[in-house]
């Protein structure tokens, strides 16, 4: 078995993860802890703002759309208190306009969900202007699987509601959900 890549030694490994999808936030926190980060999770703009005021982190991963507002508020707040902090914005609703707004607000990168842990770590630690593209990006099947699972979770695992939101036949969705995830599904 090959040796694992050495974890970077971070002078300040504090990482704030802001996402209203609790399961996703917890999985990401566990994955980032294994990579040497000390994580704090928040599920709202209000909770994240309190965390930033109490202990401004060196790094942040912030969902763009939260239940109580815009994740960019958290990025702006963090950058005003700790200008050298590196924040990235994650979203399931990616488009060029919101990416530009996120970077103008102080984010160092903008990633679409589902994002790979390697991509997130690379974006946080990248010292240059632009993050390096992943060597092994997610396949179309993996992205499709993650998206369906996310909508299914957001629909409280209601099959009919998920099928309606995805604009697909209920039985087709049921067959897709009964299959195993593609091999490389991440986070």
TrEMBL record:
Domain Response regulatory: 14-128
Residue(s) carrying 4-aspartylphosphate: 63
Top-level division of the source organism's lineage: Bacteria
Keywords associated with the record: DNA-binding, Phosphoprotein, Transcription, Transcription regulation, Two-component regulatory system
GO molecular function per UniProt: phosphorelay response regulator activity; transcription cis-regulatory region binding
Protein name from the UniProt record: ActR/PrrA/RegA family redox response regulator transcription factor
Gene3D superfamilies referenced in this protein's UniProt entry, alphabetically: 3.40.50.2300, Homeodomain-like
Single GO BP term: regulation of DNA-templated transcription
Record SUPFAM superfamilies: CheY-like
Native organism taxonomy: Bacteria, Pseudomonadati, Pseudomonadota, Alphaproteobacteria, Hyphomicrobiales
InterPro entries: ActR_PrrA_rreg, CheY-like_superfamily, Sig_transdc_resp-reg_receiver, WalR-like
Keyword Transferase belongs to the record: no
Pfam families: Response_reg (PF00072)
Record's keyword annotation contains Phosphoprotein: yes
Gene Ontology CC annotations of this record: cytosol; protein-DNA complex
